[in-house]
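Reviewers of the previous submission asked for a worked example of the structure-prediction workflow described in the proposal, so we include one complete record here. The input consisted solely of the amino acid sequence. No template or homolog information was supplied to the procedure at any stage.
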Amino acid sequence: MTNRTGGERPGSGFGRQISETRLGTIRRVRVRDSVEYVWWLSKTPHPKASNLNVLKEYSEDMIRLNRNGVRGTTRPSGHVIRDSFDKIHAGGAIPPNVTEAEFDLPEAMMKMGNNAANDVYTRRCKEGGIKIHPARFPALLPKFFIKLLTDVNDLVLDPFTGSLTTGAVAEQLDRRWIAGEAVEEYLKAGKFRFEEMSQNPMLF
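From that input alone, the workflow returned the following structure tokens.
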């Protein structure tokens, strides 16, 4: 589930909604609306998940600490550094809750655009005169959560699938999947996702 943020909503201090275009390009009082929340919902307080599936490469600083060793101490902040802090046997670092889209790289921000204009899906839709889904999201978004929350052969459900991005990613990661979509035209175009997956598996 996503909830787009930003913009002044009806009922705000001004009592009216001001368009993003006016705020950004005319009045110049705000930056681009570019943040979305992803809500991770669970039926239980302890959902199935494993951050071992989404570990990041260790940073150069961590590798240096491993090489030189760490002496146990307590920082002025009260944070306790143990002698084992420099161990890298896990094979990677746990990513932060804000992470790079290409999460196998040692970065610290999840940045992913949605402006693909020349991918297989878009080209095939244009060639076939099929309506392109207006709210597509990058494959890296479901990829991260499918890897974090499921195992091979698990079932992934996407009840509002749009252009079948989640299904294509689940297929690539050897998960079973079920998708639902109210607009049949979007589902027909979604088959191009699997064509794209076969041509460029690195996208998934």
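The chain has a mean pLDDT of 75. We consider this example representative of the routine output the project will generate in years two and three.
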